[in-house]
Amino acid sequence: MFVLGAKAASTLYGPHTLSAYIQEFKKLAEAMAEGQNITIKGPSPPDLSSVQISLLVGPFGDSPPEGIEFGDIKEDIAFPERGYFRKGDTPSATFWSANPRYDLLTEGTFAAVERLQGKRWIATYDDDDLSLFFKWKVDNSSLHGLATIEWEIPDGAVSGVYRLRHFGATRITITSPISFFTGASSAFAVQ
């Protein structure tokens, strides 16, 4: 994980990275406020991605349990006794899933909260939102992947019918093409 101001080994410019960023962002903010044009000076950092070693083995083929597809629900929404959720509650669902490192979905999302509008489901929150959590792990009993999606319903959420949606990618073997899958929880009401 990249943390500004952390130990020198964790940052591009060493222990003074945070101070350097603050200095440069201050210059940018002042120039923008004054409407000045900014010229970039100095070299860009070298791209060392081709020479970096990784001790983390990549995923090499996943499969769900027999009779189950990726995206199927393992644990669906647990409804409160009152039958609906309130703002501040945290509905969650767990899906059978493949390792998220097959495709980081950089132009997409692993998790979404969708609200029913008419007859269509419209994405209202995704894993960019601080209220939505995506957690992946290997199930200890079966050694299959599980993705849990939790949504802390924010105060600003509109009352309505929602569902949790999971998106993922997998491959059967290390050389097979990537295939994509999706799954959805049961619908639930938020008031």
* Fourth-level CATH superfamily of the largest domain: Neutral/alkaline non-lysosomal ceramidase, C-terminal domain
CATH class assignment of the largest domain: Mainly Beta
State the end-to-end CA separation.
37 Å
User: Mind describing the biggest β-sheet?
Assistant: 5 strands, antiparallel
The helix count comes to: 1
| Assembly form of the protein | single chain
Portion of residues in beta strands equals 25-35%
What does the average pLDDT come to? Answer: 89
Please compute the radius of gyration using only Cα atoms: 22 Å
List how many beta strands DSSP finds: 9
> Structural class per helix/strand content?
mainly beta
Residue runs with pLDDT of under 50 for 5 or more positions:
1-8
The appropriate CATH architecture of the largest domain is Sandwich
Q: Element order, helices and strands?
A: HEEEEEEEEE
The shape is flat
Helix content: under 10%
Q: Would you tell me which CATH topology of the largest domain applies?
A: Immunoglobulin-like
Overall number of domains: 2
